[in-house]
């Protein structure tokens, strides 16, 4: 069945996904080639680099990532000696995660690359357009899909 009134290329979820893929591919190559990281691993690394010592649950809440993905990423980062784990004295089920010196160096390197990359992505935008885009994306990312149906 064909719907001539529906343009998939203008469907917002599709358009956002296309923009996300296009804008992240080059940066993905960098963290993958330099550090052998997957997307979830660099996201965990960045959360620890930006916010310091955290639990996996705290990262999950901030990053909106599932706990199993975080667990796998932490395991890989620990194996590569980017992250340390320390059991909580009060609750042995909880682990506090922190960057090692090697992890901090990788974070500093990728943070610098990310800033440069971000500036390049928005170089054709005016400061006002950049701010508007950021505000709109923040607004969209805080919406709950269950309210639309």
The helix count comes to: 6
The CATH architecture can be named as: Orthogonal Bundle
Q: Ends: how far apart?
A: 22 Å
Low-confidence stretches: none
Looking at the chains present, what oligomeric state does this protein adopt? single chain
List how many beta strands DSSP finds: 3
* Main sheet specs: 3 strands, antiparallel
Q: How would you describe the shape?
A: globular
What is the helix/strand order? HHEHHEEHH
Q: If you compute it from the alpha carbons, what radius of gyration comes out, rounded to the nearest whole angstrom? A: 18 Å
Mean pLDDT: 92
The name of the CATH superfamily reads Winged helix-like DNA-binding domain superfamily/Winged helix DNA-binding domain
What do we call the CATH topology? Arc Repressor Mutant, subunit A
State which percent range the strand residues make up: 5-15%
Adjacency order of strands in the biggest sheet: 1-3-2
Number of domains: 1
Overall structural class, as computed from helix and strand content, comes to: mainly alpha
Tell me roughly what share of residues is in helical segments: 55-70%
**Level-1 CATH class name:** Mainly Alpha
Walk me through the structure.
It is a single chain. The chain has 149 residues and is mainly alpha-helical. It has one domain: Winged helix-like DNA-binding domain superfamily/Winged helix DNA-binding domain (Arc Repressor Mutant, subunit A). It contains 6 helices and 3 strands. Strands 1-3-2 form a 3-stranded antiparallel sheet. A hairpin with a 7-residue loop joins strand 2 and strand 3. It is globular, with a radius of gyration of 18 Å.
């Amino acid at each position: 069945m064909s719907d001539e009134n529906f343009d998939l290329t203008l469907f917002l979820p599709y358009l956002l996904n296309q923009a996300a893929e296009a804008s992240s591919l080059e940066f993905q190559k960098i963290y993958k080639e330099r550090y052998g990281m997957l997307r979830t691993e660099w996201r965990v690394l960045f959360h620890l680099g930006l916010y310091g010592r955290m639990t996996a649950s705290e990262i999950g809440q901030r990053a909106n990532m599932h706990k199993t993905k975080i667990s796998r990423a932490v395991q890989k980062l620990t194996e590569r000696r980017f992250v340390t784990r320390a059991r909580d004295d009060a609750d042995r089920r909880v682990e506090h995660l922190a960057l090692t010196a090697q992890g901090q160096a990788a974070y500093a390197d990728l943070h610098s690359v990310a800033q440069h990359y971000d500036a390049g992505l928005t170089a054709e935008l005016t400061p006002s357009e950049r701010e508007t885009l950021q505000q709109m994306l923040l607004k969209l990312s805080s919406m709950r899909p269950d309210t639309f149906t």
